[in-house]
Write a structure and sequence with these properties.
Length: about 575
């Protein structure tokens, strides 16, 4: 069980340092010690190592004589420590006193452990047995050195210490950092040349460092609450002055006997100004970026067509309001959806296929069949391109509902077919009219040749005026008959019409409406209506309940009933 006690001691270094510092202070040794913190830890471990080595294999308390005669090397490290302190001018009495406070600090740790009284007693006995051997060997080594050797060694060490002191003083004076050394109350004891250059005081000695540096706080405790020790703090030395990194270093972290502080200030004005300039630039660019983002968001939402942003996993990252309305889904509900959920299963092409087929720097354009949330399908024109951002790749999909466009295209196709059919009908009507006109002209020519010309010849040669008048009466009757022909009196009446009115009659006879006649003849509907009125007047149809179409298409022999 003693082994457990000693192993626990090895883990209680900080507790040991606290106990030993208090013991040294109570004994009056602390103010004289030159040992650093690392030296104290080293001595503690040198003390424990031989004990740990022994208790791993032995549980019984060793005899003093056995340890002294058979294990004289167990104190070699501690003897080296004693020699080093002796060379620094430490007396035997003071060293043994410090050694005793070390043993006392270890015993206090053991007494505070959660163990039985028997285990604690066994642990303390083991510590004391080994400490007795250590003390014997250290004193023996100390007495072996003559007084003359001791003085020579002391002088040598003093020279070395003086050289070291001068070297570090020169280093502190040469560095550009401000270095202040204070006592435990924070009063400045020493300052390097850089401190006087920056702060401009005639004499810094005796001033509290927080007053000299214009820091927050009125005493050491308050200042170290504002400015934590062993941490860098950025301060400005006076208004409009340079910027520094301030570090407050407790001297006790290096030497347990030292209770003051070392204040180090490193001039960081150049990087601070650069940082401020960079921060200003970053702020300006961040503001510009925010404005751009707002503009983009406004354009994105106000766009007249649907816009989708899709990631490489084909999930919708963002959708504008127009896209949401088009597909009947709320914008926030569209985020995370697979883009193909917006395509109909009947669509030959879909978003994912188009994206996969998209080459580098290419833009895909085509048509797809979209699908709303309620399952309604609609045609859409789609444009897809790739956007490579710094952190990821997105696909920009522009969607346009072309339902109305498709309907207009279909209406146009039907209208084109109807016009083509009407053109065929009109060509047939015109051809028929041309054939009838040719036949009519032939009949007139024949009647003129066979009827009129012989009568005219007889009238010209007839000397009797009454007979001649009779011939003229015959010619008149024949002309009336020629005008009437087989079509009856209607054809004779049509000779009263102008060329344009005859054309309009042909269209009316073919069944064309006023608007269609206006389109074909490049006239206004009002002009066509005026011509229709004139035609009815010339044909004697005013005030009669008969249409021009019926009149012009009446069977032979019925015209008189209309006129």
């Amino acid at each position: 069980m003693t082994a457990n006690i000693v192993q626990i001691l090895e883990q209680r270094v900080e507790q040991f340092l606290g106990n030993w510092t208090q013991g040294m202070d109570r004994a009056g040794y602390l103010k004289y010690t030159t040992a650093r913190k690392s030296d104290c830890i080293e001595s503690y471990l040198y003390f424990l190592e031989p004990i740990l080595k022994y208790v791993r294999d032995n549980q019984a308390l060793p005899l003093f004589s056995t340890l002294l005669l058979n294990h004289q090397d167990i104190a070699d490290n501690l003897i080296a420590v004693s020699r080093r302190h002796r060379s620094r001018g430490v007396s035997a009495e003071m060293f043994i006193g410090c050694f005793k406070t070390l043993i006392q600090a270890i015993e206090e740790i053991i007494m505070g452990m959660e163990a039985s009284h028997k285990e604690k007693l066994a642990g303390i006995n083991m510590i004391r047995r080994f400490s007795d051997v250590y003390e014997t060997l250290i004193v023996g080594d100390w007495l072996e050195m003559t007084e003359r050797e001791a003085h020579e060694l002391l002088a040598k060490k003093n020279r070395a210490l003086t050289l070291e002191k001068n070297k570090y003083e020169n280093i502190v004076e040469a560095i550009p950092d401000v270095v202040l050394v204070t006592d435990a109350d924070g009063k400045i004891k020493e300052a390097n040349d850089a401190a006087y250059r920056y702060m401009g005081f005639g004499n810094l000695s005796g001033k509290h460092f927080w007053e000299a540096l214009n820091l927050e706080g009125q005493d050491v405790d308050e200042v170290t609450r504002y400015y934590a020790v062993n941490t860098y703090h950025e301060i400005q030395l006076y208004e409009q002055g340079p910027f520094f990194h301030l570090q407050i270093i407790p001297m006790k972290s290096v030497s347990l006997a030292s209770k003051g502080f070392m204040i180090v200030l490193s001039d960081v004005s150049c990087p601070v100004l650069q940082r401020e300039s960079l921060e200003m630039t970053v702020n300006e660019r961040t503001l510009a970026l925010m404005n751009k983002e707002k503009q983009f968001a406004s354009l994105f939402q106000a766009a007249g067509e649907g816009i989708l942003l899709v990631d490489t996993e084909f999930n919708i990252v963002e959708a504008n309001r127009h896209a949401a309305q088009m597909f009947g889904i709320k914008p926030n509900e569209m985020r995370g959806l697979l883009c193909n959920a917006l395509c109909s299963a009947n669509s030959e092409m879909n978003f994912q296929t188009a994206i996969r087929n998209l080459g580098e720097d290419e833009i895909w354009e085509g048509e797809m069949i979209g699908q709303t949330e309620d399952g309604s399908a609609f045609p859409m024109a789609v444009t897809i391109n790739c956007i490579d951002l710094e952190t990821r790749t997105l696909f920009h999909i522009l969607v346009k509902d072309i339902t109305n466009q498709k309907k207009l295209e279909e209406d146009l196709r039907l209208e084109r077919d109807r016009v083509n059919e009407m053109n065929i009908t009109l060509r047939n009507v015109i051809k028929s009219i041309d054939e009838e006109l040719e036949s009519f002209q032939k009949r007139i020519a024949k009647n003129v040749q066979n009827l009129l010309l012989p009568v005219l010849e007889k009238a010209r040669n007839e000397p009797d005026k009454r007979v001649q008048d009779g011939y003229f009466t015959i010619i008149k009757d024949q002309l009336i008959r020629l005008a009437a022909g087989k079509e009856g009196e209607a054809q004779a009446i049509i000779f009263k019409l102008t060329r344009t009115e005859k054309k309009i009659c042909q269209f009316i006879q073919a069944g064309c409406s006023t608007k269609e006649i206006a389109d074909f003849m490049c006239l206004s509907t009002d002009t066509v209506q005026t011509h229709r009125k004139n035609i009815r007047k010339k044909l004697g149809l005013q005030g009669k309940n008969i249409s021009l179409f019926s009149f012009l298409n009446a069977p032979e022999g019925t015209v008189k009933n209309f006129v």
